[in-house]
Amino acid sequence: MLPSLAADRALLEDLDGQISELKRSIEVLRQQKSAVQQRLGAYKYPVLSLPNEIISEIFIRFLPAYPECPPSQGPRSPTFLTQICRSWRGIALSTPELWRALSLSVGLGQQLGDLWLDRAGSCPLSLEVDEFHSTNGPEAVAAMLSYLGRCEYLRLRLYESQSQLSTIQDAMSDDTMALLRHLDLEFDHDEDLVFHDVPLLRSVVLDYNAATHVVLPWTQLTSVTLREFFYSDCVSMLLKTPNLISFRLDEFSVDRPPDWDPPDVPLLHLQSLVITSMKSSSVRRSDCLSPFLAPAIRKLHIPEIMLGLHPIPALTSFVSRSGCQLEHVHVSGNRLASDHSYRTALALSSLKLLVLSEPCVSSEVEEGEEHSPSDPIHFA
Question: What is d(CA 281, CA 284) in angstroms, rounded to the nearest whole number?
């Protein structure tokens, strides 16, 4: 028994030694842990060391480019930036530029819409109301009315009760829209909408009904986009806008009244003419460029159908008559004229790019050419 007791005492002493050693190891580990914690506590992430002004600028660039309206929630929304950390929330809420664009069609409600726009401070605003994609059209219009005087960019899609237009007209009569630069308007009512006292307005996007029922200072406009227009109505509209620099026509039809003789349309400042998305009912008739005189034009995008049955003479006549220096030419749609014909006709010293996006359907294709679309042709 005595030998057994001696062995246990020796074992106990050994265990005490191991415990002491482990305690020393634990103490060393605790000291190392403390040192690491101190280093981590003293470390500043580079992004958190940036001045608030720089972080604000990063936040602004994180959103869709103004005046596009960001989503009201989720990624690419300013509300997303308020959910990262306390510091970023404070910066986001104190950066008015993050809150200056808002689609009121997303069901925020007037209270949340007011809160959003209040954060924009005194910034000019970009507002959108689209009743086609909204379940709260009247509420969205009501929320917008208080901010018309601060609108810099305004996009309206109104399809519900006609009283909406009357409400907007009354609000515009009470409040000047002196900051408005761009108007995108579409509605299906027959009531006129008058925009008065809009000295900065330069750019409009209009569908056919809006264009025929809106009163604008046409002569001060420099950029016009028209949608779903007949060619004859388009010509009449252009006569009212002599100072245009950019004109775009989408979803057009070349149909026009029989024996209609278009007037001359001088567009002395026009630099860009883009015509796309022809309606399927359109058929080739005469040269649609014949009324236009555009000496400053540099960019021309046109479906060949608008050049009539003889597209090459029509195009060269336009260039000669205008005395213009075209730099970019894009001919779309099925073509009667071959690639070679266009390259020859547009052998201009100023031309930098020629795009023929659809195949030539004529049976008289130049030898060695194919019926498929050609690659863009760059000129030195």
Answer: 10
Check whether the bond before 67 is cis (ω within 30° of 0): yes
Beta strand 101-103 pairing with 353-356: unpaired
Nearest by Cα to 207 from 193, 219, 217, 222: 193
Q: In what order do the strands lie in the sheet with 125-130?
A: 101-103, 125-130, 151-158, 182-187, 203-207, 223-227, 246-250, 272-275, 299-303, 328-332, 353-356, 377-378
What distance in Å separates the CA atoms of residue 82 and residue 46, rounded to the nearest whole number?
19
Asked if residues 56 and 91 have their Cβ atoms less than 8 Å apart, the reply is yes
Owner of token pair 């907007």: 168
Q: Decide the pairing of beta strands 151-158 and 182-187.
A: parallel
Contact between 301 and 332 under an 8 Å Cβ cutoff? The reply is yes
Record the tokens describing residue 236, joined without a space.
């009449």
Res. 372: pLDDT tops 60? no
What is the distance between the alpha carbons of residues 345 and 350, in angstroms, rounded to a whole number?
A: 13
pTM reported for the whole predicted model: 0.80
Tell me if 353 sits within 8 A of 379, measured CB to CB. Answer: yes
Give me 284's structure tokens: 């080739």
CA dist 201 and 182 (Å) reads 6
Q: Scanning the structure block, which residue is given the tokens 């018309």? A: 148
Q: What burial class does residue 96 get, using C-beta atoms within 10 Å of its C-beta: 0-12 exposed, 13-18 middle, 19+ buried?
A: middle
Spatial distance between the Cα atoms of 178 and 163, rounded to a whole number of angstroms:
24
pLDDT bin (cut points 50, 70, 90) of residue 371 is: very low
pLDDT for the residue 199: 93
- Predicted confidence (pLDDT) per residue in 262-275, tens digit: 889 999 999 999 98
